Amino acid sequence: MVLPQVVGFKFTGHLQQGVTATDLVLTCVDMLRKRGVVGKFVEFFGPGVKSLSLADRATIANMAPEYGATMGYFPIDERTIEYLNLTGRDSGDVKMIETYLREQGMFADASRPDPTYSGDVMHLDLTSVEPTLSGPKRPHDRVSFANMKKDFNSCMTNKVGFKGFGYQEADTKRTQKFTYEGKEYEFNHGDVVIAAITSCTNTSNPDVMLAAGLLAKNAVEKGLTTKPYIKKSLSPGSHVVTEYYKIAGVEKYMDQLGFTTAGYGCMTCIGNSGEIPDAVQNAIIEGNMVAAAVLSGNRNFEGRVHPHTRANYLASPPLVVAYALAGSVNFDFETQPLGNDK
Question: Is the pTM of this model over 0.70?
Answer without folding.
Answer: yes
